[in-house]
Amino acid sequence: DTLDFTLQHRFGIGERNDVIWGLGYRFINGKVAPTSAFILIPDSTFDQQLFSAFVQDEIQLVPDKLTLTVGTKLEHNDYTGFEIQPSLQLVFKPAEKHTLWASVSRAVRMPSVLEAGSAFNIFYGAPIVGPGGGLYVPTLVGNPDVASERLWAYEAGWRVQPTARVSVDVALFYNNYQDLITVGDVSNFVPGVPVGSAEIPWSNDSSGWTYGGEASVTVSPTDNWRLTAAYSLLIAHVEGLEPFAENSERSAPKNQISLRSAYDFSRRISLDGQLRYVDPILGVPAYLTADLRLSYRPNDHLEFALVGQNLFDPQHPEQATAAFVTTSEVPRGFYGKITWTF
């Protein structure tokens, strides 16, 4: 069960500064149960809290030509404490129909309850011989000292609008990852009958980088219809203990293709659709799926929406599988949403 509160506020400073800031709080009450005989649940319930704040200033260095956006996000989580995530972006418009941009940002992934908590123990192989000649089962356990994974992301892009109804976007990226969380070495032997436990904590023993690009074309055949085709390429390299490094490289799809349509029946009613293809990854075959969204806006402040997701299959896997763990599959889903802006 998750409870979320968010606050966002925007204001201007003079004619060249547009500032936006916000606060957030998330509370999670979790209950877990084993899905495999290889998993033990020492503590079946857990609570998590996440506090966050952000501020961003968009500065018009040269009005309508050169814009600098600088900001940072500050988070506090239960496992690693405070985390800072700054970002900087520069946008240059050399001509009316051309836009160039570049950015650099720092991001973190805080450890999960599996990696830093005490809710899960996972058997990780056949018994080994330990102290005194006894048998011990290798067991993955949470590590309260594990650090957040860190990312420095570098991006650059170009947008051109050759006609009023066509726009083209091309972007390149390079991501550098540090302190990736992996399976560590045995740190403690716990005697037991008939076998003991060889505890293996999660640890920050790997690093890596990814690079690639994205390209998209948007066409508006009519004033109320927009079509977008997009393609992305991702190449990954991970250094660290095997087989983690190789498995990590195979855990993200190399190629993805999407086709999107947005049609406005009127000023108040819209229908959006998306068709997605994703390359195979570790233990997951390639898949093709579709999403639909129908929305109605009785006025400029209120919107009602009905959404259907993953419509082609009752369910399918999207996440790379891990040894001895049953990975959840993403089901076909439907939901309604009400949005009120003021």
Helix content: under 10%
Helix/strand class: mainly beta
Number of E strands: 22
Strand content: over 45%
Can you give the mean pLDDT?
92
Low-confidence stretches: none
Taking the sheet with the most strands, its summary is: 20 strands, mixed
How many separate helices?
A: 2
Return the string of H and E elements: EEEEEEEHEEEEEEEEHEEEEEEE
Ends distance? 28 Å
Please compute the radius of gyration using only Cα atoms.
Answer: 24 Å
Shape: globular
Quick summary of this structure?
The protein is mainly β. It contains 2 helices and 22 strands.
Describe the structure.
The chain has two helices and 22 strands. The protein is mainly beta and 342 residues long. The chain has a 20-stranded mixed beta sheet that branches. The protein has a two-stranded antiparallel sheet with strand order 20-21. A hairpin with a 3-residue loop joins strand 4 and strand 5. The longest helix is centred in the last third of the chain and has 6 residues, at 244-249.
Task: Describe the protein's topology.
Layout: E1 2-13, E2 17-31, E3 39-40, E4 45-62, E5 66-77, E6 81-95, E7 98-109, H1 113-116, E8 121-123, E9 128-129, E10 135-141, E11 149-163, E12 166-183, E13 188-190, E14 196-222, E15 225-239, H2 244-249, E16 255-264, E17 269-278, E18 287-299, E19 302-309, E20 315-316, E21 330-331, E22 333-340
Parallel strand pairs: 10-14
Antiparallel strand pairs: 1-2, 2-4, 3-8, 4-5, 5-6, 6-7, 7-11, 8-10, 9-10, 11-12, 12-14, 13-14, 14-15, 15-16, 16-17, 17-18, 18-19, 19-22, 20-21
